[in-house]
Fold this protein.
Amino acid sequence: MLTAIIFLPLLGALLIMTQSDERTIWNSAFIFSLIPLGISFYMLWQFDVHSSHYQFVEQYPWIPSFGISYHLGVDGISLFLVLLTTILISISLLYSGGGDIEERAGEFCFFMLVLETGLLGALLSVDLFLFYVFWEVMLIPMYFLIGIFGHGERIYAALKFVVFTMVGSLLMLVAILYLVFSAREHLGHITFDLPMLYGLPFTQTEARWLFAAFALAFAIKVPMWPVHTWLPDAHTNAPTAGSVILAGVMLKMGTYGFLRFAIPLFPEVAVEAIPLFMALAVIGIIYGAALAMMQPDMKRLVAYSSVSHLGFVMLGLFAFNIQGFDGAIYQMLNHGISTGALFFLVGMLYLRRHTREISEFGGLWKSVPILAAIFMVVMLSSIGLPGLNGFIGEFQIMLGGYLRIKLATVFAVTGVILGALYMLWLYERVMFGPITKAVNETIADLSAREIVSMVPLVALMFFMGLYPKPLLDRIEPSALNLLSRVHVAEARLEQRRHPTALASATSNLTATQVAAAAVK
Amino acid sequence: MTPINFASLNMIWLPVLPLAVVALAAMAVLLIGVRVDDEESEGLGFLTLAALVIAFVLALGIIGQSGIAFAGAIAIDGFAAFFELSILIAAALTVLMSLDYAGQYRLPGAEYYSLLLFSVLGMMLMATANDLIVIFIGLETMSISVYVLAGMLRRDPRSNEASIKYFLLGAFSTGFLLYGIALVYAATGTIKLIAIHAALTSDMAGNPLLLLGLGLMLIGFGFKVAAAPFHMWTPDVYEGAPTPITAFMAVGVKIAAFAGFVRVFMVQLAPVSEHWTIVLWGLAALTMTVGNVLAIVQTNIKRMLAYSAIAHAGYILVAMTAGGTDAGGAILYYLLGYAFTNLGIFAIVVALERGGSANDEIADYRGLASRHPMMAAAMALFMLSLTGVPPLVGFVGKFYLFSAAVHRGFVGLAVIGMLTSAASAYYYLSVIVAMYMQEGGAVEERPARPGIVAAIAIAAIATVLIGVYPQPYMNAAENAFASALSPDESHATAMMP
């Protein structure tokens, strides 16, 4: 079943290549994105709520001489990200067919569907090599989407995006190789299978370097401050659907990478790195929010708000408690939905006015009431208003962060306030006040297709804000499972720092070391 | 493929049968060709192709054998077979893309195809050589043919320059190699690789004559594989030579040179590896950096591919530095994948050339995606493979090479390789940028001919297939390398004439 979810879009992409009629292409691409969407809902239906293990596992040998297998599985951490991906891709195709992409539809749909294969593959891989393959595969269609269908400095933005990501991921590849070969020393055989690589006894130096290489690759993708600089360019110049997928799903790959790989593979280093990552997360939150406030361009504003929001996710992750984990995973979904929706709305405004300058708008409430109403819900969800989805995630992250490092949360809260500030200010300047530009009086309200695109997202915002239990129930077992690894590591670190009398007696301290300890 | 029954044949001639076929075909093409008009040379091309296919089938018979013949001058093993097959594939694809080109540019068909076959002969001899003199003979047979082929466009000053430059520098480097061989002979008293190997395991290791000889041989091979700092000839020669010959140099010459290089250094000189590993480390790091950095600023696609070829030689040197069976297998696998990918690219470059204007600036590729969607898609595929994007063969090969390096503890070198190959994304993608994201460029290319289309299609399928399902090719490569490491002595004596 997981294979079908991953490869049906690719099959669709290849079939679309044979078509030449634009209308047929759009329709068949949309249908091909609906099939994995349907299967992923079936998967949700069949998902065992109480299990913390991988489900729907498929495993076949692929390159046996390297211990590489085609190993797929889904657990509570990846389950909803898969759904998010299939939903957003379908909506993007639906929306883009309505006039956003006017030419080269075949290439657009081809790359969107290949992108879906890459994203889903990366989320469902349980083999490090397989994961790396999909991780790189998703880069290329996004590169084409930005480069061909983007605006402004699209080629520069696309190249910057690829080169940034590639530097990180190639270093990660070296780390993966090192990890696998030193695992061979301990296990006796070579394997890229993720569960077998957990809990290996690395020396502190080894583990630190390896963690650094993984963390850099994922931090670039998140993106964490100070490696975020590719993001505003890529977002601003990408086509609407590209921005939606980039913000909605691709950035999550970074945080997902931390959850799935960097943290459980090297939990001790991760625990040691808490202060560093909390600090970077808080800087990202405040920096992103501050820059968002200053942007004259709506899309750039939303892009910087992503830096800020992902900072919250990282804060929750590195709190290393169940509140933080739950909140972080929940917030990943929230950000995908609300920022995705924001990019759609900005794209709709751009389509009508061919500008994204905030100063070009004003008083739209009167001319496009439906758009304004939806924009308001989305904006409030992004701010984290209670009753909408953003609140649940943000609240849990704050709680988790507070239990770990109080000061970090204090600073992060200012980010929430700034977030409310720049969003409300944006809304005020665009929607309220008198209509200052004559063209704004005559622009059309949302078409039926656009409303249909937005309704599922708005519905999800209310559902996830009012009734988060079904989601959290499924996330929590896997989150607890992961957390137990971190706690073991924490205990081990604690023991290393303050060895008790019993521990020092049982450990093989040499006589001189014991004597030195006695003198102290 | 069912194994061919060679039992009825004289065992002595068996291993050189593919070489004999190629040599005979070269002479036949030359004789028949004198009566063929330059514009009608397609028939000669098909004759050449047929000879290459026959040699290919015969070379398949060597797989799995392990031994030496002709008093130890020639090794009959999987290593030779793997390299011979790769060289024959490269030659066949080169012929496919030459079919139309040779007539279009009025190249003298007889000389063109027979020289091509003679250089293939030299290459195959290098692959199967097991003594230093045979390696030298193979190298010279190959090089002298290619010197002439590079200058085949007689009225194009760039082609003349390429030929002269390649010849002068090539002769110079051959001198280094020969002097190196002489010094190794002086130190060990033999030119047979197996005897040298045996001598090294005793007390020869620190001998200054031997070390000097090794150093000079390293320079000679370094020149042929275009490793920095011996790469200076590459861009000019690649740019000036007729494009199918550039392809043949970038792939065939490189494979053959690595065949000799790997057999001498990784197999027979492995006992003294501590003396040359550090040198290779430096060469690898320098080659990857020089190739990838200088490729970024190129505007001509053939020059860019020249620097790209330098960079890829650097990646292979990384695995040579690491040493070991997995590194050897990685090199063989990588060369096979590299051959398909590069030949595919050059086939497209040939297809877009028009008589009169070379059409080989990267800017000429603007808007290709809208004019020739399939060709642009194939080009994008090849470029992504060279960048190292999974699951294409370029990625799996690089993964294989660098895994050997990391396995042996050369993490620093692997990191340098990865960072420079991240830089390579820039120039490979710039071709994609031109094809897909920019408008304009050259108009009205000649319609692609079936030969070239076939070459592109074969290369594209192989690039995907060998990458997605690499295990059989990895096994073949590793077995091939292992067979060179441990020749079966009993079998060997039986074959000795």
Summary: The longest helix of chain B spans residues 157-188.
